[in-house]
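$ fold --in a.seq
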Amino acid sequence: MRLGYLFAALFCFFSVQAQGADSGDNPIVQKIRYPVALGSLYPEKAKDLKHTVKELLVSADRHFRPDGKIPKALIVPSSSIFLSGRVTAAGYAYLKRVRPFLKRVVILYAPMNKSYFGMVVPEAKFWEMPDRRFEIDTATAERLSQIPGITRDDAPHASEYGAEVQLPFISALFPPEVKILPVLVGDASVLQVSDLIDAVWGGPETVVIVVSQLNDAKTYEDVLERADYVIKRLEKKEYQSLNKRHLTGLLPVKGLLHYASEHDGEVKILARGTSADEFAPSKKVSGYLAAGVYETELSEEERKEKLEKLLQENQEDLLRIAAHSILSGFKRGRPLYVRESRYADDLSKKGAVFVSLYYNGMLRGSVGSSEPTRSIIRDVSENAYAAAFQDFRFAPLGEDEIKDAEISISLLTPKVPLKFESEEDLLKKMRPNRDGFVLRERENKALFLPSVWDTFSTPKEFLMHLKRKAGLPADYWSSTLKMYRFEVIDINSGDLPDPKSIWEARKR
């Protein structure tokens, strides 16, 4: 059996078979991809493979107790089942309860052997494994191939094993009618990967699997240190801080974290381990993580109310941080360094903040973030400094004037993607005088705050100018255009009992 599969892998990765006829009595040609990691990364015999995976899943149930909320996406290792199987099984064990609803599993993985342009989905109808023939979700593959940067091609998948090593776990957990869609992520941008995830995300009928693991380290201690760093970045969705030294399959991970950031998702570490846990340490030690990405359970209104409460309860602290960051600019030429541990835990979560300065009722500086890339506290500090010293639209306030200025902090609520069928449909869903919007068309992007409704009173006018700001024609339209709405929560130093108190040292 092993020789047969190896022969197929080396000389004929894809077999062409006639299976039935279409309405015109022409043969339907269906391609089959055969396994390439058989007997090396997992057992070659179906019986042994099933037994191994079953034991791993039973152990995961016993040691990790995967109850509670079901993740919508997983990050799992791509290594040998004999080395990383325990960690991989722990991740998949959390998906057991999605079984009644599941129709497809989308697997994103990066190439190990070669580089490829863009992203590639299979043309094949089936992927063969010792214990099961998996059907490819060809309808979704065809739909994705219409997006620029995504092609259908079997050849790049032929020698890559990243998706293949996930199939024994999918086979053990889900019924035969569940389809798969492997996506090879080559040379693409984080936004492109995030957009692909958005295109397949769906509801409980879909699970997204991202294949990645820690890069090898020289010692056990080194891999543990690397794991600690990566875990912190994953939990905070700080994909910009991750690079190829940390992870294999880096780009799929970054795309997933970007998507989670944009949709207020939560990342939790489910399991961790190393190759040294299974065998004696060698010259290299590999690290493994399993992480789940969870959709928020709060409604749009509940999330807004939570943020409003957070800002009101910490109003004075946030305004004081902004004020003292400006004072730090005068004294040291840099923003205030803020120790997040001194403040409420929720202020350490990522947020997008605008800080504006007013003097005698006139705007004298305003700088903000359109994306939640750092903690709320750090965003306040950095943007307050930038509003005072780096907004070149205005003459900077002098040190003798600054304490008479009013500080306004605006926190953007998490962006909500709008679903629409046409421009007319989109215009109907825009809420004047309430919502701000982010428009994105591939790499083109623009943001308007809700205050822009004072200038452009109708949704059509608002949208036309938003397109122009993104570098697009006013009459531009595309099926790939994306719109996200958000609201703004404001706090102002003028609303404090003593507005000038924020410029003084904090009393403890």
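$ fold --in b.seq
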Amino acid sequence: MKKSVNIISRSSTLAKIQAQMVGSAISKKHPQISLNYISTKTSGDINQNLDISNSSTMGVFTSDISNQVINEKDSIAVHSWKDFPIEENNKTNIYGTLKRADMRDMLFLKSELKNTKYIDELIIMTSSPRRRYALENNLTDLIPVSFGKMSFIDVRGNIDTRLNKFIKGKANGIVIAKAAVDRILEYEKSKKITTSPTQTCLKKSKWMVLPLSLFPSSPAQGAIGIEVANNNSSLIDLVHSINEKETFDNVANERKIMSRYGGGCSQKIGLSIWEKNNVKIKSINGLTENDEVLEDFNTINPRLIEPGSSRATNRTNAFPVSKSEKNIFSKKHFNKNTQISKIQDSIIYITKKTVLKNKPDFSHSCTLITSGIKTWRESVKKGYWINGTTDSMGQSELDHLKLITKAKDVIKLSFKRNRGDKTDTIDLYELKEPKFPTDFEKREEYFWMSSYAFSVALELYPAIIKKRHACGMGNTYTKIKKLIGKDSEITPYLSYEHWLKSLKD
């Protein structure tokens, strides 16, 4: 094993942070190795006039560093993996990565929009064709502001430079990778830095974390790529020793799929692959160079029962398969607007549109997160600014917001008797008088909207525990799995609609 290793990166603050992260992982595993950090400006950093959305400029942030790795035998390079060309070269490659950060994008919007109902033009700063396409097709019903048209301004530079341009410029919004925001905030926290463009934007802008179901990222976004010369076996072994396999495999899959469409920053295509409850999930959205529309949010795990499978249940033997069957409870609503209006500096988790029936007034110091896209859209219709969603993945996803919110508490708006989680809950309605179809117990497969609904049904019909069950990806899955034990089957799906598609007509 080499006693001294050079770690080369770009010269930006974010690049240096990522290099230090790799160095820390090496030192933890191999404390005997001495590390030297080398930062350099690439052609993409120097020439601010380059059009990075053009396929001819692929590798402008990596090729100069790759040449150093080739020429300096004791060197590895650390990149934002998304910047590394998908087209392989024969001299270097990415041989390892660390655990992936948040893949999502963040949209910052000028705070003056919060009192605006309509503007003629919404101007967003981004040079990414992928981001432009996704925003044009999905943003309209995610903000409570109507606009005549959406236009874009190219923006270049490191994170601080771009955010300063946004703060001082005429644009209404800017899109930044959340992984970059998180890493910078973590660094600033460790250095006790209290003022920065990132912190200013979080304080003074209306921000939202864009959901992967509608806004998949570029391949490898949020992942660090560690580059080594192909002929340097000792450094390859070193990098393999710190490699995070799940991230590496998912990114490799993303890059492989994207290569079918040409790859690179010039594409209007977002693609993200991740795992939840041992299920691989893929979101792809965009437009190919041949004008083929790509739009798929689905699982890629053979464990799930997919349409046409021999294991699929007949629709007539499943529950619920209609709107009337879904609504098994009547609801009694409670008005707790006074209590809600007093909440400060907290994440408020809106579990269903039902909790907004009495139109509660939320403090501007609070962060509003919905359980899914439907609830987000319904909240916007009522005039609320939503900061993000757990995207039907469960409230554990709120952990990804700790750095950017600095929230003291998480307050969950839900229904009475919904207990057992780590959040404080305000009961805004009660589920009463459950009604099940007469042949309920004879059905073969059940989809559950909540663990509470399952527990009520189980108490009335104990025999169903041996049947086949399904639910969403979040806490409902975790809780039901504990209740049914190892002898019964529970399968997580992305949504009720996704489960319906798995049934035989």
